């Protein structure tokens, strides 16, 4: 075990593309400094192409070509959505404005699946463009039928029924989303009365990270597909949602050391390396046991997509047959909605240093950004940022631990509730670079509190000899072969 007196590090895993970008620090900082004040999101469209292949390959190894619907929800980056369109994926949208964004990026209706809670305007636009529509309730199906009878009654529209697995035989997840098994017959009766609505298949999006349970979900959807065939429908698609894993930290050992430092503080009263002794959900019982360890470890535990996908596809049904064999032999379509996994390593976030001060013998670095520029549920588990200095000094050769606070006139504006470990002391004008922020972290909750500016976006493209930077509006994936010429 390492010396638990030193602040624990949580080093970010970095792709080769991000490593190359950071090695070209001068070009990156030059590009960032011409933008207006505020934090900057640098997006890497080339990485999304690599990720799509990485997600699809394990399924192809089982003879299944998955239909990948990248999720719009985790990002507002127009460049990443345009790149996904150029890569011939499909897209899953969760609102009317996300649907408009996807259409503007070049997706046609047949490549769009509309999910989430829907008002009539969202449903109407989906029908006008012929999108695949995932229906979340009987009430939504009724509204969908009413609007279809007005907008395009003679055209065939394709739908998925989103399943709520709360009453599944394996003990599914209780959720506010989806149609329960005992409600499906009413849906089937409504569809039988509406011949121009085609039941394309069934959809489930549990967010479950356990591969065995995901396999149970896949079996459950196959069961519903079989029942629908018995009733005269001809569904083909099984949409198993997203929540595919990604590895965010460089070292599992560092993650365990971080947890052990929290446990030591609770059990011995040793120095804490967290803001105001924050415990990340751990608590001490009267007999000295530490509760919450497994829940905390689950935030740091992950596996490669390949192993996770293989485990799902090898799941056996009641006849002891692998679900991958059934899908392949029956010619069913397997749809995926990878969100965070699609955008893994697709961006970094730069915040300018205002100053580093000392408070009660603790260093605090003030950044020109705040907690509302990050996603709340991700912020706690962010890895250590990387210090990008304007000028290298000899005093910045050693590691330096500091708390990170923001630019709000509010005491709660603490960006990370632990000391981060940097390679040097941040000075005014330097930048801290947070890695792997394209999904959820960057702009899911971004808000202009105190009228501080929201994040600016900058597209970074690696060429043969250098890096090129441009606005999202200028970025066109079909013309990227001309960049640098």
Radius of gyration equals 24 Å
Strand content: 15-25%
Poorly predicted regions: none
Question: Number of folding domains?
Answer: 3
Largest sheet: number of strands, sense, barrel closure: 9 strands, mixed
Termini Cα gap:
53 Å
Look at the structure and give the CATH class of the largest domain: Alpha Beta
Assigned CATH architecture of the largest domain: Alpha-Beta Barrel
CATH T-level fold name of the largest domain: TIM Barrel
Structural class by SSE content: alpha/beta
> Judging from the principal axes of the Cα atoms, what is the shape?
globular
Calculate the mean pLDDT score and round it: 93
Task: Spell out the CATH superfamily of the largest domain.
Answer: Alanine racemase
Report the helical percentage: 25-40%
Number of strands: 19
Number of helices: 14
